[in-house]
Write a structure and sequence with these properties.
The complex is a heterodimer of chains A (374) and B (304).
Chain A: E1 11-20, E2 23-33, E3 38-42, H1 49-57, E4 64-69, E5 72-73, E6 84-87, H2 99-109, H3 115-125, H4 141-153, E7 159-163, H5 171-188, E8 191-196, H6 199-205, E9 208-213, E10 216-221, H7 223-228, H8 233-238, E11 243-246, E12 249-251, E13 257-262, E14 265-270, E15 281-283, E16 291-295, E17 301-303, E18 312-323, E19 327-333, E20 339-345, E21 357-362, E22 368-371
Helix pairs in contact in A: 2-3, 2-4, 3-4
Chain B: H1 4-50, E1 52-55, E2 59-62, H2 67-107, H3 113-121, H4 128-138, H5 144-151, H6 154-160, H7 173-198, H8 202-209, H9 214-243, H10 246-251, H11 259-268, H12 273-298
Antiparallel strand pairs in B: 1-2
Helix pairs in contact in B: 1-12, 2-7, 2-9, 2-12, 7-9, 8-9, 9-12, 11-12
Classes of the chains: A alpha+beta (374), B mainly alpha (304).
Chain lengths: 374, 304
């Protein structure tokens, strides 16, 4: 484990599809995972992320599509022929073998002579060298998880697949393991593909996050990009909270900004945020996909009466204020009935009480536009 | 609360300790009584019988005559060897047939699992003797099984390895072993099924992921995890098969006599009780030693 492994190339999925009878688990995924990156596949349970992972591992056969590792097409190879290892959700440690024999299982299959020494090194990496003689069931959940990790990385695979590996751990241990996993990934330099339904976990750990929904990819990008510029309403609501204002149309005054129309209000939107081909000549056509303006709760401000008029202003009435310590979350009812969520830090700025009439404002660079059915 | 602790804390412990001693004894008593009356007493009586001299008409006296053992062994050692040989062959046969069957029922049968398990024990609904007699018809010289064996040349193979004497199947070592395999197959399949059914199939994914092909996955994961079932299945097959006398009697010939048949004859026809008792004892002790060695080698206590 002293020398980082250099991967032979990126992992590429081309039109990867998997059907179970009538059910489409994975509906044609195209994805490229750069070598050496920490990649997260994020989505709710049943979105097809684990099926995708199992196809990469070779444990599930794709209905259609190809899988490439570097230049090599590995679609037709069997699991045991792929230089890919998995950390299973259930750990799947062999109960009849010691921790050391569990970790050494793959190396012995590969007929590596110094399997014992390398396994001990892997156990040192996960800080379990002193447990090498014990059986898996004598270890705690967190330790078993680390054995499973050592058992996978000791083989220096090209790609390491992690199937919700932290799902069974409690919150504190989970945070520790997140940091640990990131450290190990940087140390060994293997491509990690981490499957999770926890958006916070995905954003904390990964360089790149792919959001999956109902068998297809919604959006792929860096965590901050996904959060600040979600491409779809699904991504916007899956990665944290957001307020989505239904828009009736755009008009184009020229320049950096365009005007969006929502319930009689003209709101300023960055031109660069608009999806391609968005009409800028007033209203949308009948039957066109709905378009929403999204603003994160923490990007909304409650304007004080003496503040300079903001480009974007919406008046409403506070219906609820909940104090959570570091912040206060308000619900503000708009004249058309929609309630917007506003999160303000408790930094001594203006506080509102239920029943107060307030004006909300935000920076036009901080909003986003999504177009599609919710 | 300060004084409540010792009173509330100590009393339940004492009473539960008394209960903890009483209940197991109560639960064990019926079985212990049963075993005492129907196992310990007969065993002592058998041991005593084997060391007595006399005859059935004038009665027996205990003379500590160990010569009976020496004579019995000298006359019947080949029957012992044959019995253990047949029993071992039959055990291997049931294992080879039973393992894939148990695996299929445990992991591949889906909704038919229970139906298949019922089918495994279904032969028990028929009498042991009738079932074994049926094998006389199955293996009859003019039957389809013999015909098939002749057509495929398997009869010559069996003859070459000494399991048959000519181109027929009935009344041969092969027929005896076949009968044993058939009659004891459920005793092998059920413990194997119990072991394999518990096996977490996700471990097979893990083995495949760790570069083990099907063969290596079997030998390094499935087989070791199924050893408890293999050990109990082989014991449940080997022990009764070694003492069996019905299969060799109904399906064998004078050259296939097993030790159970000898004991049966000594007790019920020759009426030489000391020899019969000595043979029973030798059989029992040999089996205990064999099983002890076997269990030690298999090392079941190491297993999950």
């Amino acid at each position: 484990m002293t020398k980082p492994t250099t991967s032979s190339g990126p992992l590429r999925l081309v039109g990867l599809t998997r059907h179970f009878d009538d059910f489409v688990a994975v509906a044609g995924i195209d994805l490229e995972v750069p070598a050496g990156s920490f990649f997260a596949l994020l989505g709710p349970s049943g979105c097809g992320k684990t099926t995708t992972l199992r196809m990469v591992a070779g444990l599930e056969e794709p209905t259609a599509g190809r899988i490439y590792l570097g230049d090599e097409d590995i679609t037709a190879t069997r699991a045991y022929q792929r230089r890919v290892n998995t950390v299973f959700q259930s750990y799947a440690l062999f109960p009849h073998l010691s921790v050391l024999d569990n970790v050494g299982f793959g190396l012995r299959q590969l007929k590596v002579a110094d399997w014992k020494q390398r396994s001990m090194e892997a156990l040192e990496l996960v800080q379990l060298a002193d447990r090498s003689r014990q059986r898996p069931r004598q270890l705690s959940g967190g330790m078993q998880q680390r054995v499973a990790l050592a058992r996978a990385i000791v083989n220096r695979p090209e790609v390491l697949l992690l199937d919700e590996p932290l799902g069974a751990l409690d919150l504190k241990l989970r945070r520790e393991m997140q940091i640990e996993l990131k450290r190990i990934q940087q140390e060994v330099g293997i491509t990690f593909i981490h499957v999770t339904h926890d958006q916070e976990e995905a954003m904390t750990m990964a360089d790149t996050v792919a959001v999956m929904n109902a068998g297809h990819l919604e959006q792929v990008g860096e965590p901050a990009a996904l959060y600040d510029r979600p491409a779809t309403a699904y991504v916007a609501s899956f990665l944290g909270q957001s307020n989505l204002l239904p828009l009736e149309g755009f008009s184009d005054p020229g320049g950096e900004f365009v005007t969006a129309h929502a319930h009689g209000n003209g709101l300023v939107v960055e031109r660069a945020q608009l999806p391609k081909g968005m009409p800028l000549d007033g209203g949308f056509a009948e039957g066109a996909p709905s378009v929403h303006l999204g603003i994160r709760p923490e990007k909304l401000r409650i304007l004080s009466p003496d503040e300079a008029p903001s480009a974007n202003r919406l008046g409403g009435t506070v219906t609820d204020a909940s104090f959570t310590g570091v912040a206060t979350t308000y619900l503000v009812a708009m004249p058309w009935g929609q309630e917007l969520t506003v999160t303000r830090p408790n930094d001594g700025s203006l506080r509102a009480r239920p029943g107060d009439a307030v004006v909300l404002g935000w920076d036009p660079h901080q909003s986003f536009v999504v177009s599609e059915a919710l | 609360m300060a004084f409540a602790h010792p009173i509330g804390g100590v009393r339940p412990v004492r009473s539960s300790r008394r209960r903890g001693y009483f209940v197991p004894v109560l639960l064990l008593t019926p079985a212990m009584l049963w075993l005492t009356v129907f196992f310990v007493v007969p065993t002592i009586s058998l041991a005593s019988q084997s060391l007595q001299t006399g005859d059935i008409d004038n009665g027996y006296t205990l003379t500590w005559n160990f010569q009976t053992y020496a004579d019995a062994l000298a006359r019947y050692w080949s029957h012992f060897l044959r019995s253990f040989g047949y029993a071992a062959t039959a055990t291997v046969g049931t294992l080879l047939l039973g393992y894939p069957l148990a695996w299929f029922i445990a992991h591949r049968s889906g909704k038919y699992k229970n139906a298949l398990l019922v089918l495994v024990v279904a032969p028990f609904f028929t009498n042991f003797l009738i079932r074994t007699l049926a094998w006389q018809i199955i293996l009859t010289d003019t039957g389809p099984v013999t015909g098939f064996f002749r057509a495929t040349g398997l009869t010559s193979v069996l003859q070459a390895v000494g399991l048959t004497n000519n181109d027929t199947l009935l009344f041969s070592p092969f027929a005896v072993v076949s009968g044993l395999v058939y009659n004891f197959l459920p005793f092998m399949v059920l413990p194997l099924y119990a072991s394999l059914e518990r096996l977490d199939t996700r471990l097979l994914d893990a083995a495949g992921d760790l570069y083990a092909n099907g063969w290596h996955t079997f030998w390094r994961v499935i087989w070791p995890l199924s050893l408890p079932g293999v050990v109990s299945g082989t014991l449940l097959t080997f022990i009764p098969a070694a003492g069996d006398y019905i299969n060799s009697k109904l399906l064998g010939n004078t050259q296939t006599v097993m030790i159970g048949q000898v004991i049966d004859a000594q007790f019920l026809r020759v009426l030489d009780y000391p020899t019969a008792a000595a043979l029973s004892f030798i059989l029992m002790i040999t089996i205990i030693i064999l099983v002890g060695v076997y269990v030690r080698i298999a090392g079941t206590e190491e297993l999950v």
